């Protein structure tokens, strides 16, 4: 039987709630199909570990991760630890160093699920956001001088390399090419930011020459927010910088229904390192422990993970079951329903049993 080693990192807040349900669903799915097996190892990386040991992940954490085929991550962040510490010690400490440079964030409005947009038809929102995940605004460069004086200066430097921009651009063009509409929108802010953003525009035009079958256009990020809300059908695949796509992916999820549905794959397209799959949302302190967190984002991540490791049939069955259940009005309160996290997972398993027989 095909076996894959999966690291689960539930993390903080609602992370464990959505990851545990997802693992239960994955175990049922593999039992039903009987053609492959995911071998899970839970890693206790997160704020509880930090409070005990002073570290979010052990010193050899990245080497540990490299022994797995993939990772399933929940969320990190706690009310009593500054976010820039928790995130830079765990999540951002994996994405950059493992060179998970392509962050793929698909968003759809499921049939019958209320969208934030008026008059939106089923399927009008069907986007893949591709986020540069290793450099740009998140490169970690910057500093503070003259602290404690009115002359304090703080810099937050964005670094864009030709190699870094070109590889994400090629990756995005490939995704656009693989989808029926073959349409890519490149998001920048090259009117105000005249170095890195102009490099993005130039690289887009260069790479486009190798993809004559893909139709592409450019948008400034501010105008892009309007286009997403006003003309959702005019968009398909979207590529942009680390920060721009961080912001646009929350907007995309909300427009499609809820931040609770948006999945995110941190991919190493070279497949040297394991890719890590995580919901777009965070640890959601306001609903932690209430049993109402929407597990759709994490289940969708699980489907993306199955597809990435090669189990495409299982991936499709899982995503279809999630979509069908939501479309029947069986969903968590953020989507207007009244089921809890665990009940939702059980409904998905029942739907899978019905389809697979
Ligand atoms: P958040 O995504 O945690 O929550 C924003 C809002 O969306 C909250 O009202 C929350 O209840 C709701 N929400 C989020 N996920 C939901 C779900 N699955 N089901 C239903 N409702 C959901 O964002 P935030 O409040 O800005 O951040 C909280 C903490 O999480 C911070 O520490 C932040 O740094 C961290 N964070 C971590 C990640 C990550 O680990 N990938 C991502 C974003 C934020
Ligand atoms: C996300 C999150 C992270 C990001 C934060 C928590 C560092 O918002 O994955 O979208 O900005 O990448
Ligand atoms: Mn975000």
UniProtKB/TrEMBL annotation:
InterPro entries: ICDH/IPMDH, IsoPropMal-DH-like_dom, TTC_DH. SMART domains: Iso_dh. Pfam families: Iso_dh. It comes from the Eukaryota. Residues 5-348 form the Isopropylmalate dehydrogenase-like domain. Transmembrane segments: none annotated. One of its GO terms (molecular function) is NAD binding. Belongs to the isocitrate and isopropylmalate dehydrogenases family. This is Tartrate dehydrogenase. The lineage of its organism: Eukaryota, Fungi, Dikarya, Ascomycota, Pezizomycotina.
């Amino acid at each position: 039987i095909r076996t894959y080693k999966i690291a689960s990192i539930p993390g903080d807040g609602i992370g464990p709630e959505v990851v545990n349900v997802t693992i239960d669903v994955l175990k049922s799915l593999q039992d039903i199909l009987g053609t492959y097996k995911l071998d899970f190892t839970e890693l206790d990386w997160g704020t509880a570990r930090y409070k005990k040991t002073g570290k979010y992940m052990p010193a050899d954490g990245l080497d540990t991760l490299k022994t797995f085929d993939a990772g399933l991550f929940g969320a990190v962040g706690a009310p009593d630890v500054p976010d820039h510490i928790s995130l830079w010690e765990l999540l951002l400490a994996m994405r950059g160093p493992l060179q998970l440079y392509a962050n793929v964030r698909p968003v759809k409005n499921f049939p019958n699920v209320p969208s934030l947009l008026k008059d939106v038809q089923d399927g009008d929102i069907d986007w893949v956001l591709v986020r540069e995940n290793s450099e740009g605004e998140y490169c970690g460069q910057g500093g503070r001088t003259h602290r404690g004086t009115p002359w304090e200066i703080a810099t937050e430097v964005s670094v864009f390399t030709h190699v870094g921009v070109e590889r994400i651009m090629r990756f995005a063009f490939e995704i656009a090419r693989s989808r029926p509409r073959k349409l890519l929108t490149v998001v920048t802010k090259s009117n105000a930011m005249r170095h890195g953003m102009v490099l993005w525009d130039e690289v887009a035009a260069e790479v486009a020459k190798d993809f004559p079958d893909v139709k592409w256009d450019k948008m400034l990020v501010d105008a892009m927010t309007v286009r997403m809300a006003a003309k959702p059908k005019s968009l398909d695949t979207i590529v942009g910088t680390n920060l721009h796509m961080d912001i646009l992916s929350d907007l995309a999820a909300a427009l499609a229904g809820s931040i609770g549905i948006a999945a995110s794959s941190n991919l190493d397209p070279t497949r040297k390192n394991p890719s890590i799959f995580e919901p777009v949302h965070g640890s959601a302190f306001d609903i932690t422990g209430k049993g109402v967190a929407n597990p759709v984002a994490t289940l969708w991540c699980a489907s993306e993970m199955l597809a990435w490791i090669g189990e495409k049939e299982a991936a499709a069955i899982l995503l279809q079951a999630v979509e069908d259940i939501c479309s029947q009005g069986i969903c968590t309160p953020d989507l207007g329903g009244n089921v809890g996290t665990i009940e939702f997972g059980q409904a998905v398993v029942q739907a899978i049993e019905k389809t697979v027989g």
